[in-house]
Design goal:
Length: 104
């Protein structure tokens, strides 16, 4: 099983606008998005701000998204284990391609 991602702190949390993964700002800058590597957030604070949001509601924590009915219901079954937002507010930049629907 893939190692999960949990927020390292409960301050300055941000959620990916594409996959809704929640991490601290420091984690985004250090590791980028493990689900959406093409966002190229790692080591780029402007890109991190453009592709993530601090405005989100609810948190789902999943150890095994593929076997979780909550993961399937929220279309997260193909994502890495971690914490995810139920809803995010914001819009990805125009230069970011849409997520491949076949992966869902």
């Amino acid at each position: 099983m893939t190692e999960g991602i949990a927020p390292a702190t409960y301050t300055k949390l941000r959620a990916c606008l594409r996959c809704k993964l929640i991490k601290s700002e420091d984690q985004w800058l250090k590791d980028g998005c493990e689900n959406c590597e093409q966002l190229e957030i790692k080591n780029d604070s402007e890109r991190m701000i453009d592709c993530t949001t601090s405005r989100f509601e609810g948190i789902i924590s999943m150890i095994n998204p593929a076997q979780s009915w909550v993961g399937r219901w929220n279309r997260l079954s193909n994502k890495i284990p971690g914490c995810y937002a139920l809803d995010v507010q914001g819009v990805l930049p125009e230069d970011v391609p849409e997520e491949d629907e076949e992966k869902d």
